[in-house]
Amino acid sequence: MRPPRRCACGYKVASGSRCPCQQRRQAEADARRPSARDRGYDSRWDAERAAYLKAYPKCARCPATATVVDHIIPHKGDRNLFWSRSNWQPLCRTCHDRWKRSLERRAAP
User: Fold this and answer.
1) HSE, side-chain direction, 13 A CA sphere, residue 32
2) How far apart (Å, rounded) are the C-alpha atoms in residues 70 and 38?
3) What is the DSSP code string of 44-59?
4) pTM flag (> 0.70)
5) N or C: which end of the chain has fewer CB within 10 A?
């Protein structure tokens, strides 16, 4: 078990937990973000995603079964990049949640 840490705000946080200030910032960011359907992940995406995962069933990073179709280059609303299959890669949930999100966090301004 790891010892607690101090957040930048000075709050003492248990290992594996998030500070209330971090939780508040995340909630505010989530409130500003459009819904998945508004970002283009609609029934057409669901069908294309299923077909892609059927063609590429293994994760691109590990030997696990792929469950996520990831955009290699974040599309940021660009519909051509969103639908470009050359910009897709199959990932398992673990690789997507850990590896890809850490890359996106580092790239964010």
Assistant:
1) 6
2) 17
3) HHHHHHHHHHHH--B-
4) no
5) C
Give me the chain's average pLDDT, please. Answer: 86
Cβ–Cβ under 8 Å, residues 90 and 66: yes
14-40 tens-digit pLDDT: 888 889 888 888 888 778 776 767 666
**Range 5-44 burial, b when 16+ CB lie within 10 A, else e:** eeeeeeeebeeeeebeeeeeeeeeeeeeeeeeeeeeeeee
pLDDT top residue among 95 and 1: 95
Beta-strand runs (E) in the chain: 5-6, 12-13, 68-71, 88-91
**Phi-psi region at 47: left, alpha or beta (left = phi > 0; alpha = psi -120 to 50):** alpha
Length of the chain: 109
Beta carbons of 95 and 63 less than 8 angstroms apart: no
The string of pLDDT tens digits covering residues 75-89 is 888 889 999 999 999
Q: What angle do CA 96, 102, 105 make, to 5 degrees?
A: 120
